[in-house]
Amino acid sequence: MSLQVVTTRRLPSPRDIPASRSQLKSEFRSPVLNTSDVRKIAAQVLGGGRLTESWRRELEAIDRSAKFSRNALSLFQDLQAQLGMRTARPVLLPINNQPFWHRGPHPFANYQSTPRLPGAADVVVIGAGLTGVAAAYRLKDVGLQVVLLDQGDPAGEASGRNGGNFELLPENSVGIYEGLAPGRFTFMRQRYPSVPIEVLQAVSERQASLVLGLALRNRNILKDTIFKEGILCDFSPKGWLHIATNENEEQGLCDEVTLAAQHGQRIAIWSRAKIADEFGIDAAFLGRFIPGDGTYHPFKYVCGELRAALRDGVALYTRTKVRSIVSSDTHGHRIRTSRGEITTRFVIVATNAFTRDLLPELSAIEPYQSQVMVTEHVPDRARGRIVTSDNGPVFFNQPREGAAGGRAPLLMGGGDDRPMKNASSRRRSPMVHARLLSLRDGFYPELVGQPPSAEWVGPMAFTPDGLPCIGFLRPGLIIAAGYNGYGGSYTTAAGHAAAEMAITNVVPDWLPEEIFSPRRLLSNDPLFLTERTGLWRVASSLCQQIESVNRELSEALTLHQATPIAATAPTARILGPAGESLPSNSIEPESLRAFDSFSKFSREEVRDLLCLMRRWNLTKDTVIFTEGSPGGTCFVIVEGAVDVSINAHGQQQLLATLTAGAVFGQMSLIEGVPRSATCSVRADAVLLEIEREPCEELLRSGSAMALKFLATLNEGLISALRGADLRLMQLDPQRTTAEMPKPCAPPSGRIVSNAAEPHRRDIKFDNSLDKTKSWPSSFADVFQASSDECMVARHT
Ligand SMILES: Cc1cc2nc3c(=O)[nH]c(=O)nc-3n(C[C@H](O)[C@H](O)[C@H](O)COP(=O)(O)OP(=O)(O)OC[C@H]3O[C@@H](n4cnc5c(N)ncnc54)[C@H](O)[C@@H]3O)c2cc1C
């Protein structure tokens, strides 16, 4: 309880208050001041409406010389905090643990739309935080009966206890943040250590692009809702500055400029001088500034959105705990609550850190605690903008509520997030308190010694891959949770997406299931390698990577004047092997299963696969197909060897020699592009060929065999990519094998040279299946401007 509360609820009677300050002063000569003494002082000081100079001196003298009981000292520091005064003593954890956002009255405390819960609804939304209320808001005018339930009051948990930021780039990272795509890659490597690195690289780049698309959608819907409903929530899209912690991070931030530009967003890179000018912060490294981000009052926002939802027919029942969800094919879902049962066709679970309590199968979504402190009357240097840094880590802003006369409250959160056993816990950490203080005093040295007026905690939900869960867990049961501390980047869009799913029973294409579905948390196998669309996308990305490396190789081979395998390239276009093919039934399934690439297939599966293929017996030097020919089929080598070569400025250069078990030609099958190399028989060979049409039919079937075959094609692509990389390294020894993925190239997909690290290869991931992208028309300009900005910022 703080003195503010004390003075409004338990004002001392006039008899308790000494008649004059000198009388009061004499009382303080008692050996130890207790809480009632401090209350009397507070009543005097705060009762006057403003702090007079003489009272200030008086309080300073008390601070210097009085003795306090432990509670009295906390209460005294609370008074100092409210007045914006300093103490000469150690700054204690404030007694007030109420979130800044909860200071006003709650318009929906204990709200019940009707005295009794309805027995049925079309959609039940569980959880009235940012996500659940966004879902209810989206559902309000589609003619469905929507019931919103919360075990507490709306925005009582994370949504009313956070830092009040909305951000375009959710910066979850393992260790120091190094940019969105490298961050994704580190998570992926940690989560799926046995998946080939080339696949993880492709998947991470795609994830980064999707995450940014989702966050952008989130910011747009947030803004539109605020304006459409006229929600007064201190919305301040003044920008977000993230200060780098080391050079790697600086590089990562610069790379993000490109990623953002691909989504039509302009991000600025700020030099240290600019940071000092704008914020008065002496930064050691440069920063990334995102103009449209900023702060808002999340509690007021939720209440405004909720008011609109209730107006349009959504029913709200607070203090109603959902105890279980029983799903059946015939009845939909039975929601058992502390106030009775509701039957529904669709249920949206928006319970974030509490999800595993309700659905133990989602125990991978773990609650973590974050702590925030508020300091009053701080010079308003942030002016509605956010600042973050991994050095802490720390986030802070100065919300617009209470900003006046060049001063504003300062909200500072940070220290490492801590796992929680119980998501409802309100226990604060004295260690985090100490950390927050030192971070605060580092950024605002003028605050040293000023006690914070309140400090609170709240629960966040973390997932093992750092991505949110938005999608169907089972038919009709939709999850929207797990934002890894970045609800400000996701929750509004996640709520809307969950609502769309309840309306259409379909997952929007901007939330591909293999990336965002909660089902990915039910197993350790990556969905992106066990489902058809995921595998296909990986294949497509690998093809593009190979194309890029082949282009690089062609350049390098010319540059290094490597010995050609033939003086001139074949002039005639050869589309396929000459002569007659044979049926493939003469091939023994076991001979294929003996190869690593087909070892996962059963005998029956190989037999079925062989039915889709034809056999070629080819003699040495036969050209199978030439570079640039249309293609559309792929081959498996059963016996013999095949040379792969490319035309480098008129000369035929060998890239690789493939032996039995290898698959080749799949790029033109997957991408439908012309052959990217010439293949010819090095030693008499037996090959199997499959055409695009039966292959597509097989893949469309989605059978286990189809997925295995797609995985085999991918393995072939990975080994081709590794072979090409190796060849490139032989030509250019400066290249290293430990190439880290570097996110996102300009839309052309061409290689972006990186003067500092020439070995780092940038390849654009194909997102053609996503409709989230809107390329700026003058992308090249944006990209060029941004790159220049990075260079300039680094040298100023
Ligand atoms: C201290 C702190 C600082 C943060 N800072 C930031 C930040 O700076 N930037 C940022 O982007 N994000 C931040 N976040 C994260 C962000 O606040 C959350 O991601 C976001 O609020 C999640 O919203 P939600 O609606 O999904 O979950 P919540 O707001 O937690 O809502 C879940 C609701 O479900 C209800 N519920 C749970 N179980 C049941 C049940 N069985 N029956 C009925 N109701 C139930 C709860 O009562 C609760 O109201 C922070 C979070 C915290 C705690």
Annotation keywords:
single chain, 796 residues, alpha+beta, nine-stranded mixed beta sheet, eight-stranded mixed beta sheet, 23 helices, binds flavin-adenine dinucleotide
Note down, in words, how this protein is organized.
- With 796 residues, this protein is of the alpha+beta class.
- It is built from 23 helices and 26 strands.
- Strands 4, 5, 6, 12, 13, 14, 15, 16 and 17 form a 9-stranded mixed beta sheet that branches.
- Strand 18 (469-474) and strand 19 (477-481) form a beta hairpin.
- The protein is elongated, with a radius of gyration of 32 Å.
- The protein starts with a helix and ends with a helix.
Task: Provide a brief overview of the structure.
This protein is an alpha+beta fold and 796 residues long.
Q: Which helices and strands appear, and what pairs or packs with what?
A:
Blueprint: H1 3-9, H2 21-27, H3 35-47, H4 53-65, H5 70-83, E1 120-126, H6 130-139, E2 146-149, H7 158-161, E3 165-166, H8 180-191, H9 197-229, E4 240-243, H10 247-262, E5 268-270, H11 272-279, E6 287-290, E7 294-295, H12 298-311, E8 315-317, E9 322-328, E10 332-337, E11 340-349, H13 355-358, E12 366-379, E13 386-389, E14 394-397, E15 407-414, E16 418-419, H14 430-443, E17 454-462, E18 469-474, E19 477-481, H15 487-504, H16 513-516, H17 532-559, E20 582-583, H18 589-593, H19 603-611, E21 613-618, E22 623-625, E23 633-648, E24 651-659, E25 663-664, H20 666-671, E26 678-691, H21 692-701, H22 704-731, H23 779-794
Parallel strand pairs: 1-2, 1-11, 2-8, 4-13, 11-19
Antiparallel strand pairs: 3-7, 4-6, 5-6, 9-10, 10-11, 12-15, 12-16, 12-17, 13-14, 14-15, 18-19, 20-21, 21-26, 22-26, 23-24, 23-25, 23-26
Helix pairs in contact: 3-5, 6-12, 6-15, 8-9, 9-15, 10-23, 17-22, 21-22
This protein binds flavin-adenine dinucleotide.
